[in-house]
Amino acid sequence: MSEKLQGFLDNDSMFGRLMTRCGIVIGANLMFILFSLPVVTIGASWVALYHVMLKTLRGDGVINPFKQFWVGFKTNFKQATIYWIILLALILFGCVDVKFCSQAGGVMEYFMYAIYVLGIIALIITLYLMPVMAAFANTIPKLMRNAFYFAIQKPVRLVVLLFFNVFPLYLTYTDVHMQPLYAFLWFIGGFGAIALLGSSMLLPDFVPYLPPVNESGNFISEDDQTIMDEL
């Protein structure tokens, strides 16, 4: 009986691997929340979260989420922060334009719908850019192009990723009575779980453009990344 219990709790068992994966998600999630508090660093934190999840999936699943989050954060800080600040400025500008168009009425309402469409496109590119930036090293324009490429490659996956990235946040914002529970779930591992789901769906398409890895999930390069060639 003791041998069966020991085998069940062993790190190599299915239960052990599951608990290890949960620990990584929780640890990375806490780091994401902590490093996102300044708001302007949310972009870098988001990329770092995907860095942890992609490394976990490519290796044997046993990594230090705190150390790897920091590696992903500092490696992508400049690019991710620049993109995030530009995105925040565009969101602010779009909100002002939508308010103006809605008050003006008439033909101006059509411009409001155009802004909504541009907002959806920006959302899609952002959702894909974060994992792309975590996996590949390149200029922001080329990374955005690659993100758009992966987005349109599989429309069903795009819908799934949009749903899991948008609907839970919408539900949290609108369901006032359940907000304490939602806040607890986000704090424990909500962001990490969504990043893990996205990483698991995108990784098969990333692998052909990535170098081999060792059992720890380390890319065969000094900075754990590689430059993506022309698709």
Task: Describe the secondary structure blueprint for this structure.
Blueprint: H1 2-9, H2 14-36, H3 42-58, H4 65-104, H5 108-135, E1 136-137, H6 140-153, H7 155-174, H8 179-206, E2 226-227
Parallel strand pairs: 1-2
Helix pairs in contact: 2-3, 2-8, 3-4, 3-5, 3-8, 4-5, 5-6, 7-8
* Spans where pLDDT lies below 50 across 5 or more residues: 220-231
SS element count, helices: 8
Radius of gyration: 20 Å
Would you tell me the structural class of the helices and strands? mainly alpha
Task: Please provide a written account of the structure.
The protein has 231 residues and is mostly helical. The chain is 77% helix and 2% strand. It has eight helices and two strands; from the N terminus they run αααααβαααβ. Strands 1-2 form a two-stranded parallel ribbon. α3 crosses α5 (108-135) and α4 packs antiparallel against α5 (108-135). The relative contact order is 0.14. Residues 220-231 have low confidence and may be disordered.
